[in-house]
Amino acid sequence: MKYIALLRGINVGGNHKVEMKKLKVLFELLSYTNIYTYINSGNIIFETTDKKNDVLEKIEKCLKKEFAFEIPIIIKTEKEIKKIAQTIPENWQNDTTQKTDVAYLFPEADNKKIIDELPIKKEFLDIRYVKGAIFWNVKRDDYNKSQLNKIINHKSYKLMTIRNVNTARYLAGISEK
Protein backbone atom coordinates (compact mmCIF):
# COMPACT_ATOMS: atom_id res chain seq x y z
CA MET A 1 0.00 0.00 0.00
CA LYS A 2 1.15 3.53 -0.71
CA TYR A 3 1.28 5.98 2.19
CA ILE A 4 2.22 9.61 2.69
CA ALA A 5 3.86 10.65 5.96
CA LEU A 6 3.42 14.31 6.88
CA LEU A 7 5.89 15.44 9.52
CA ARG A 8 4.86 18.46 11.54
CA GLY A 9 7.15 21.26 12.62
CA ILE A 10 10.46 20.26 11.06
CA ASN A 11 12.88 22.61 9.30
CA VAL A 12 10.88 25.69 10.30
CA GLY A 13 12.83 28.79 11.23
CA GLY A 14 16.06 26.82 11.58
CA ASN A 15 14.57 24.61 14.29
CA HIS A 16 14.10 20.85 14.40
CA LYS A 17 16.33 20.23 11.42
CA VAL A 18 15.78 16.97 9.58
CA GLU A 19 17.61 16.27 6.34
CA MET A 20 15.37 14.69 3.73
CA LYS A 21 18.21 12.38 2.59
CA LYS A 22 18.59 11.10 6.15
CA LEU A 23 14.83 10.67 6.44
CA LYS A 24 14.80 8.60 3.27
CA VAL A 25 17.56 6.35 4.66
CA LEU A 26 15.59 5.86 7.89
CA PHE A 27 12.51 4.83 5.89
CA GLU A 28 14.68 2.38 3.92
CA LEU A 29 15.90 0.91 7.22
CA LEU A 30 12.23 0.33 8.12
CA SER A 31 12.03 -1.77 4.92
CA TYR A 32 9.73 0.65 3.13
CA THR A 33 10.04 0.87 -0.64
CA ASN A 34 9.55 3.38 -3.48
CA ILE A 35 10.41 6.23 -1.12
CA TYR A 36 10.12 9.82 -2.33
CA THR A 37 10.58 12.97 -0.32
CA TYR A 38 9.10 16.26 -1.40
CA ILE A 39 10.47 19.63 -0.35
CA ASN A 40 12.11 20.23 2.97
CA SER A 41 8.95 20.36 5.09
CA GLY A 42 8.61 16.64 5.75
CA ASN A 43 6.54 14.96 3.06
CA ILE A 44 7.45 11.33 2.41
CA ILE A 45 5.71 9.00 -0.02
CA PHE A 46 6.45 5.30 0.41
CA GLU A 47 5.07 1.79 0.11
CA THR A 48 4.71 -1.06 2.57
CA THR A 49 2.43 -3.98 3.32
CA ASP A 50 2.20 -2.84 6.96
CA LYS A 51 -1.10 -1.55 8.34
CA LYS A 52 -1.51 2.20 8.85
CA ASN A 53 -1.33 2.12 12.68
CA ASP A 54 1.76 -0.10 12.57
CA VAL A 55 3.39 2.28 10.09
CA LEU A 56 2.78 5.26 12.37
CA GLU A 57 4.13 3.43 15.41
CA LYS A 58 7.28 2.25 13.61
CA ILE A 59 8.05 5.69 12.18
CA GLU A 60 7.45 7.44 15.51
CA LYS A 61 9.80 5.05 17.32
CA CYS A 62 12.47 5.35 14.65
CA LEU A 63 12.39 9.15 14.55
CA LYS A 64 12.31 9.46 18.33
CA LYS A 65 15.40 7.25 18.55
CA GLU A 66 17.23 9.11 15.77
CA PHE A 67 16.46 12.73 16.71
CA ALA A 68 16.56 14.48 20.06
CA PHE A 69 13.06 15.92 19.69
CA GLU A 70 9.48 14.77 19.16
CA ILE A 71 8.19 14.86 15.59
CA PRO A 72 4.39 14.65 15.30
CA ILE A 73 3.40 12.61 12.24
CA ILE A 74 0.24 12.13 10.24
CA ILE A 75 0.03 9.04 8.04
CA LYS A 76 -2.39 9.17 5.11
CA THR A 77 -3.12 6.52 2.55
CA GLU A 78 -2.83 7.34 -1.13
CA LYS A 79 -6.63 7.24 -1.34
CA GLU A 80 -7.04 9.71 1.55
CA ILE A 81 -4.51 12.17 0.09
CA LYS A 82 -6.19 12.03 -3.32
CA LYS A 83 -9.67 12.53 -1.88
CA ILE A 84 -8.56 15.62 0.04
CA ALA A 85 -6.84 17.11 -3.00
CA GLN A 86 -9.78 16.33 -5.29
CA THR A 87 -12.16 18.13 -2.93
CA ILE A 88 -10.32 21.45 -3.34
CA PRO A 89 -11.94 23.54 -6.09
CA GLU A 90 -9.69 23.67 -9.16
CA ASN A 91 -9.78 27.47 -9.29
CA TRP A 92 -8.34 27.72 -5.77
CA GLN A 93 -4.67 28.50 -6.28
CA ASN A 94 -1.64 30.18 -4.79
CA ASP A 95 -0.95 33.18 -6.95
CA THR A 96 -0.72 36.95 -6.69
CA THR A 97 -4.45 37.31 -5.93
CA GLN A 98 -5.26 34.36 -3.68
CA LYS A 99 -3.79 31.93 -1.15
CA THR A 100 -4.98 28.38 -0.58
CA ASP A 101 -3.73 26.05 2.17
CA VAL A 102 -4.59 22.59 3.44
CA ALA A 103 -4.40 21.74 7.14
CA TYR A 104 -4.13 17.97 7.51
CA LEU A 105 -5.69 17.01 10.83
CA PHE A 106 -4.46 14.64 13.49
CA PRO A 107 -7.17 12.10 14.41
CA GLU A 108 -8.16 13.86 17.64
CA ALA A 109 -8.98 17.04 15.68
CA ASP A 110 -10.55 15.40 12.63
CA ASN A 111 -14.01 16.92 12.92
CA LYS A 112 -15.91 19.64 11.09
CA LYS A 113 -16.34 21.50 14.41
CA ILE A 114 -12.68 22.53 14.32
CA ILE A 115 -13.60 25.28 11.86
CA ASP A 116 -15.89 26.91 14.45
CA GLU A 117 -13.16 26.73 17.09
CA LEU A 118 -10.55 28.60 15.06
CA PRO A 119 -10.02 32.33 15.77
CA ILE A 120 -10.66 33.39 12.18
CA LYS A 121 -13.07 35.77 10.49
CA LYS A 122 -14.94 33.50 8.08
CA GLU A 123 -16.48 36.39 6.18
CA PHE A 124 -13.05 37.03 4.61
CA LEU A 125 -12.28 33.49 3.46
CA ASP A 126 -13.84 30.27 2.28
CA ILE A 127 -12.95 27.41 4.63
CA ARG A 128 -14.15 23.84 4.25
CA TYR A 129 -13.84 20.47 5.93
CA VAL A 130 -13.27 17.07 4.36
CA LYS A 131 -12.43 13.97 6.38
CA GLY A 132 -8.78 14.32 7.32
CA ALA A 133 -8.34 18.02 6.58
CA ILE A 134 -9.63 21.54 6.43
CA PHE A 135 -8.68 23.82 3.58
CA TRP A 136 -9.18 27.47 2.88
CA ASN A 137 -8.94 30.07 0.18
CA VAL A 138 -8.47 33.75 0.87
CA LYS A 139 -7.87 36.74 -1.34
CA ARG A 140 -4.40 38.07 -0.62
CA ASP A 141 -5.90 41.51 0.05
CA ASP A 142 -8.09 39.96 2.78
CA TYR A 143 -5.46 37.73 4.40
CA ASN A 144 -4.84 39.98 7.43
CA LYS A 145 -8.56 40.68 7.82
CA SER A 146 -9.25 36.92 7.89
CA GLN A 147 -6.97 36.56 10.93
CA LEU A 148 -5.61 33.26 9.61
CA ASN A 149 -2.29 34.16 11.23
CA LYS A 150 -3.99 33.77 14.65
CA ILE A 151 -4.33 30.04 14.09
CA ILE A 152 -0.69 29.66 15.15
CA ASN A 153 -1.56 30.65 18.72
CA HIS A 154 -4.69 28.50 18.94
CA LYS A 155 -4.71 25.15 20.78
CA SER A 156 -5.89 23.35 17.62
CA TYR A 157 -2.78 24.41 15.72
CA LYS A 158 -0.76 21.60 17.31
CA LEU A 159 -3.31 19.14 15.95
CA MET A 160 -2.70 19.94 12.29
CA THR A 161 0.09 20.27 9.78
CA ILE A 162 -0.35 22.81 7.02
CA ARG A 163 0.74 22.55 3.39
CA ASN A 164 0.03 24.92 0.55
CA VAL A 165 -2.36 23.79 -2.17
CA ASN A 166 0.48 23.15 -4.62
CA THR A 167 2.05 20.67 -2.22
CA ALA A 168 -1.30 19.00 -1.53
CA ARG A 169 -1.92 18.55 -5.24
CA TYR A 170 1.64 17.38 -5.87
CA LEU A 171 1.38 14.73 -3.14
CA ALA A 172 -1.88 13.49 -4.63
CA GLY A 173 -0.31 13.39 -8.09
CA ILE A 174 2.98 11.77 -7.17
CA SER A 175 1.16 9.02 -5.35
CA GLU A 176 0.03 7.86 -8.81
CA LYS A 177 3.62 7.10 -9.86
Features:
Alpha-Beta Plaits, 4-stranded antiparallel β-sheet, 8 strands, 177 residues, 6 helices, alpha+beta, 2 domains
User: Which regions contain 5 or more consecutive residues with pLDDT less than 50?
Assistant: none
Percent helix among the residues? Answer: 25-40%
- How much of the residues is beta strand, in percent? 25-35%
Computed Rg? 16 Å
Total helical elements: 6
Count of the domains = 2
Shape: globular
CATH topological fold name of the largest domain: Alpha-Beta Plaits
Q: Whole-Å distance between the termini? A: 13 Å
CATH architecture of the largest domain: 2-Layer Sandwich
Averaged pLDDT, please? 92
- Please outline the major beta sheet: 4 strands, antiparallel
CATH superfamily membership of the largest domain, which one? bacterial protein sp0830 like
Strand order in the sheet with the most strands: 2-3-1-4
CATH class of the largest domain: Alpha Beta
What are the SSEs and their pairings?
Elements (H helix, E strand, L loop, with lengths): L1 E6 L12 H10 L3 E6 L4 E5 L4 H15 L6 E5 H10 L10 E8 L8 H4 L7 E6 L2 E7 L3 H4 L13 E5 H10 L3
Antiparallel strand pairs: 1-3, 1-4, 2-3, 5-7, 5-8, 6-7
